[in-house]
Design a protein that fits this description.
By secondary structure, the protein is mainly beta. It contains one helix and eleven strands. The protein has two domains: about 80 residues, Chitinase A, domain 3, CATH 3.10.50.40; about 50 residues, Thrombin, subunit H.
């Protein structure tokens, strides 16, 4: 049977866990999609199977350790790989955290901790951020990747080589 190699387009199922065993992402399960109008009181969110992840090995679209773990696998085979924070999303960088005046947030937005939003940099580049703290006068924005600073473990199963 063929083994996955650099340049192959593949489909894999995976489950990503943190050091405490909690799952942060999986391709085997259900994804819930909700529109912008959703509130905590329910809005008719849609759940659907997430399905296998498709990518080209060596293209660099995923963190390197993930892609490298698939090389040499045959369809149906599985592997577990541990990827350090440095080789995943990097360490948290305090320079990626900014405290801004609350008045800089558009009036139609009610900022809350955990809320995700996008800010536009001076050069026009969009930057996703998470609100981490809100006071009467300021809002703290964190542009670090949510998994920055964390070691990750992936259980990966090669579904097929395309």
């Amino acid at each position: 049977m063929a083994q996955a190699k650099q340049g192959d387009k593949v489909r894999v199922h995976y489950t990503g866990t943190l050091e405490d065993g909690s799952i942060f992402d999986t391709s085997e399960g259900f994804v819930e999609e909700c529109g912008d109008e959703c509130e905590d009181d329910g809005c008719g969110c849609v759940s659907h199977p997430s399905g296998p992840l498709e990518f080209v090995i060596g293209q660099g679209s995923l963190i390197p350790g993930f892609e490298e773990a698939v090389v040499g696998l045959e369809p149906g085979q599985s592997v577990q790989v541990k990827i350090s924070a440095d080789d995943a999303y990097g360490q948290r960088a305090e320079e990626m955290v900014a405290v801004i005046e609350r008045s800089e947030i558009p009036a139609e937005i009610s900022p809350e901790p955990g809320q995700r939003m996008e800010v536009v940099l001076q050069d026009g580049t969009p930057l996703p951020v998470v609100i981490t703290e809100v006071t009467d006068t300021s809002v703290t924005l964190d542009a670090n990747h949510p998994l920055a600073g964390l070691d990750l473990t992936f259980d990966i199963r090669l579904v097929e080589i395309l």
